[in-house]
Amino acid sequence: MKLVLLGTTGYHPNNRRQTACFMLPEAGIVLDAGTGMFRVREQLVTDELDIFLSHAHLDHIVGLTFLFDVLFEKNMRRVTVHAQHETIAAVREHLLAPAVFPVELPCDYRPLAGPVPLAGGGRLTHFPLEHPGGSTGFRLDWPGRSMAYVTDTVARPGAEYIAAIRGVDLLVHECYFDDSMQAWAERTGHSSTTGVAQVAQEAEVGRLLLVHVNPLLDQHDPIGLEVAQAIFPATEIGVDGMEIEF
């Protein structure tokens, strides 16, 4: 299974990164619809598309408004946006308010309830995360492979969501701040380097990919990769355009 990183920063794009968007092309799955969403078009190889939204903050949903160009001249049988009921309501009432975006999007909406079946015999489960306004994490399992996507939350040892991600082959986890800004991470509901590495270690995952990094830190190693690797050696920093096989 291939994961393509279409947007790896948070809050706003910069010259290196778009905001949160990750795609599994062969399964027709997109995780979050930030500004990187425009890149889905070049990766689209299925006639069904499932978009899973972690929450309704703008850097995770604004790319939904790109769908007309993403789908232009594509023969799609179905496009479905999956999210918590409150997130869908926020998208439809605010992002798609007539004064802001006066056209209905070419998709259906499905509130998250139980597990969601995925192409290739997989399934997606979801779990709550600690973040102002709420956030949702996702675990995706197929026979012989698995991954989890955790964004916009505070990573710390003993976090409740660790049980939900235990043992996945690949953990894609936000790491907005380095350790010097840990207090600010706690205040804003985000993660810093050591906490994320400790979560990966405790959850006994196979690999850790750090994403949703601070856009003001536009450099190769914005959050202290060596700090994370000292705790959990199988750690990488995600950049736009990276492709991960798992």
Could you give the topology of this structure?
Layout: E1 2-7, E2 21-24, E3 29-31, H1 40-43, E4 48-52, H2 58-61, H3 67-70, E5 78-83, H4 85-95, E6 108-111, E7 116-118, E8 122-129, E9 135-142, E10 145-150, H5 162-165, E11 170-174, H6 182-188, H7 193-203, E12 207-211, H8 225-231, E13 235-237, E14 243-245
Parallel strand pairs: 3-4, 4-5, 5-6, 10-11, 11-12, 12-13
Antiparallel strand pairs: 1-2, 1-14, 2-3, 7-8, 8-9, 9-10
CATH topology assignment = Metallo-beta-lactamase, Chain A
- Strands in their spatial order, largest beta sheet: 6-5-4-3-2-1-14
Instruction: Tell me the radius of gyration.
Output: 17 Å
Report how far apart the termini are.
6 Å
How much of the sequence lies in strands comes to 25-35%
Task: Give the topology string: H per helix, E per strand.
Answer: EEEHEHHEHEEEEEHEHHEHEE
Any guess at the CATH architecture? 4-Layer Sandwich
Overall mean confidence score, pLDDT: 97
Q: Given the C-alpha coordinates, what overall shape results?
A: globular
What's the CATH class label?
A: Alpha Beta
| Low-pLDDT runs | none
